[in-house]
Structures are given as structure tokens and as C-alpha cells.
Amino acid sequence: MYECPIIGVLGGGQLGRMLALAGLPLGLQFRFLEPTADCPAADVGQIIVAEYTDRDALARFAQGLTLVTYEFENIPAETLRWLHETTRAHTLPIFPSADILAIAQDRLLEKQLFRLRGIGTPDFASVTNLEELASAAATLGLPAVLKTRRMGYDGKGQAIIRVESDIAAAWQTVSAAAPGDRPELILESFVQFTRELSIISSRSTTGELHFYPLTQNTHREGVLRESIAPAPALTTELQQRAESIARGLLEHTRYVGVLAIELFELADGRLLANEMAPRVHNSGHWTQNGAEVSQFELHIRAIMGWPLVPQQHSDKPYTLVKSAMLNLLRTIPAHAQVLAIPGAHLHLYNKEPRAGQLRKVGHINITAPDDAALAHRLDLARTQLKHYL
């Protein structure tokens, strides 16, 4: 009799939801540990409502699982370590590892790992008080970006320092957003980039690697607004350099799962690493309709030890069509309004909009057979749906 594998997911947000939607047709079941009962994943698997530090709940969560993964970085790394130690006798795998999660949670450790692997980054300095900030600003030069080392996302927990008189206000704002009693911040040189890119990559338990084509991303107010894949004017050389960056990290850390790396492309063609996400990523959503296997299924294949790519495709981008992704951030448009746009595919998260806030309530993938058709369809969507984007 077939025994259905059960995947445990820490976090029940939209990424967890989409992981389950990709895994259910493969005969997998999903169990989520999530502090909020009314979460996007509530209707695609069992929900255990508890804080991530609740060890009794974690023990119930782990019972009978095949393996554990997570859908966002703000899970305490100690939770993963406790699960690993507690379930060692039951050999419950946890992917990606607690060690890589701890690094990805801390912008300073993350930048140090990049530099260790020979990956270029903006210049940076650790700061813990106003005096250190002033000294670092003088050394790195202005403008610069002050960020919390931990817990920042979608533009939160950061401020741009353009001139010396901005330093005190930036310190006050960002230090107040830092977790813990003692502010731990990082100052990064402001990078004049030509565009923002990301590479979505994966490594399986068997060591197999896969890389999607580079994606071009557009942010406003610190929030991803749209992605285009493959990135316009993508060259083989640029793709290979991005893959080299990802490969170095995947193999050095013995990573398992999908890894996203955000990059800055400079005018001289250099790539600088901004940050990494040890999970499926917003800029990879286009793969749901633009690739033969989505990033969500790819993550599942990787952690289950299944083949990532059929052998005949192993040397080619795993992409079917030109694609774009638009985040829905305000309210939800009528289905008919979206689906009337050629090539449009609507993905909703089972989340309610919040008045006056930019909240990701869904996204639209747009596919097309060529660049010209994609540009036309994307312009049409931007115009007709501008109040929702």
C-alpha cells in the first residue's frame, strides 16, 4: 500500500500555500506550523496553530513527517536546530539547513559569506551605535543605506543616508526597528546599478543542480512590483556568471532546496550580490506558467531527492515561453478583468487587502511566445490594472 509522504512546512503564508498546490498532484500531503489560523495555507493542508518557539507544538508538528522545510526566513534558526536534535533518532531531514537559515537571517553574515566565496557585494560595515554609524559613513562615503541586520523585508527596517545631516534621523528610525535590546545594523554603500536581477537555483539531496534564466526585477517603495524572465537582453555570458555565483553558494553550503539570489548589474557588466533567500522567491513566480516545472515543484523535487530536470534538458534553461509577473498589492481585481488580458494567469493567496497598505494578495503571470508580444501584453496589463499593482 502506498504510504503518502507528509511534508512539514514552517510558515503558512502564500509561499507555503503554493508549495502545497505544487505537491498535492504528486501525491504529497502537507502540515503547517503557523501562528495564525486564518492563513493562506489553511485550505491546502493541516494547520497546527502555534508560535515557532512552542516546543510541545513542534513535537506534535514533527510526528509522522517525512521531512521539514520552511517558507520564509523569519523562523528562528534555533527552532530548526531543536527539531533536528529532537528527531535525530527518527532521521527527520530538515531542508534547507538551520546553518544556512541563520546566515540568511543576518545581512552581515550573508555579506561575509558572499565575500568568502569571492562574490562581489556593495561595501559594508557593521554598526551598533551612532558613533560607529558616523565613522562608517565617513569611510564608505555617501549616499549609503542603513539596514537592520535581521528581520527586514520589503523595504522595512532601512533608510537611505544621502548627506551627513541624515545620519542621526536614519539611526533613530532604523535602530528602533531592529529586534532585540541592542541595535545591530549594517551600513551598505549605495550602488548605482543599471538593473536588478535574480537567479533562482536549486540543489537536490543527490547534488543535482538547476538554474532558471536570470530574471529582471522592478521594485518601488522597497516592494517587488514586477519581474520579467528571461531578463531582457540576457546573454549566455551573463547567465553563466550568475550561475557561477549560485553554484558556489549551493555547493559550498551543501544546500538542499531552492535558493534565490538578488543581484545588481552595474554599468560595466559586473554583478554584485545584494542578498539571498533560502526558499522559493517572489521573483520566481513566473515559473508557474513560464517553465516546464515551477520553482515550487522544483523545491519539492530537490528536498525529496527526485530528479530536478529530465536528462535531455540538463544543458538548457528550463523555460517554455517569455514571461512576466505582476504583484497585486492593493485590492483584488475582478477575475474577468484579468483573464481578458492575453496570456494572463491569475494566482490569488486567500488574503484580504489592508486599507492603506501594500500587501501581496496575489500575482498575475503573463506569458507570450516572443519579446514583442510579452511587451504588448505587459503594457496592457499595467494600464488596465494600474489601480491594483
Description of the structure:
- The relative contact order is 0.11.
- A hairpin with a 2-residue loop joins strand 11 and strand 12.
- The protein has 12 helices and 17 strands.
- Strands 9, 10, 11, 12, 13, 14, 15, 16 and 17 form a 9-stranded antiparallel β-sheet that branches. Strands 3-2-1-4 form a 4-stranded parallel β-sheet, with helices on both faces.
- Helix 1 (14-23) crosses helix 10.
- The protein folds into 4 domains: 6-94, Rossmann fold (3-Layer(aba) Sandwich); 123-189, Dna Ligase, domain 1, CATH 3.30.1490; 191-318, D-amino Acid Aminotransferase, Chain A, domain 1, CATH 3.30.470.20; 321-389, 2-Layer Sandwich (D-amino Acid Aminotransferase, Chain A, domain 1), CATH 3.30.470.
- It has 389 residues and is α+β, with helices and mostly antiparallel strands.
Which features would summarize this protein structure in a list?
nine-stranded antiparallel beta sheet; single chain; 389 residues; D-amino Acid Aminotransferase, Chain A, domain 1; alpha+beta
